[in-house]
Amino acid sequence: MANCFLWTVYGVLKQESKIWATNGIGMAFGLFYFLRFIKFAPPKSPSFPGSISQHISGCLAVLAASAGVTILFQADEAAGIIGNLAVLFCIAMFGSPLASLTTVLKTKSAQSIPLPFTLATVVNCILWTVAGIFQMKDMKVYFPNILGLAFGLAQVALKLVFGDGRSRLEREQPLV
Amino acid sequence: MLIPTVARGLSVIQSSPAALFVRGGATASPAWVTFCANAAPIASMFIFFAVSVDIGGTQTSERERIDILTKERNLGCTCSPIQPLTKSSKTRMLDRSLYYHILL
Question: What's this model's pTM, rounded to 2 decimal places?
């Protein structure tokens, strides 16, 4: 959501329709998913750092900061600052599935890694890397996608190494 | 603090020999480049749609978890807390990575 918002602003400032159109739609989807998610997720889940209201505040802060930068700076400068921020968020987003990395290593099972989604991310990163290098010639586009590709391939490797077998935790604690 | 550091890091990478090589060698077949550039937004859209499948899965897992807890309560079983149940721990794992993904 925050990432798509930043890329939408960046795309508008750079007048790159492929970036703003795609991420604008992504932002709308993200907002819808977030609203659906908070309906079902426990408000104080021990696995999340902070509360959902804190996360909403964080997203609003990103929105306010982007608006501030766009107003205060000239288009080129603003695009540079927002682009760098977007790169940071993009790297964090691509790395987010690695949050379950410790679980995979501990349980010796890659059940928590969704393979179709990971493969789709790998393909997506390849395409954006090619577009970023050869067509847009924009490092802010291809750099995070190369990293995303590396993260995606790391997850595929984990899936290949550990597979979807029953985890050690499941073997030790049967569901009865 | 963080943004200037990232900006500096990016400019260093941008002026690196590898980046210069990439820019210099960017004369590949335009047809496949155009194809990739046009396919990239479609691939992103596909991913945005694909998340909805995970959202559906989370909702189902959450309902399953609630069903298990309700059954336990009805049986008067108070000895097993939520944590040891495999389904609930699986739900939390799915929740976590998916939530970060949506939020970011």
Answer: 0.68
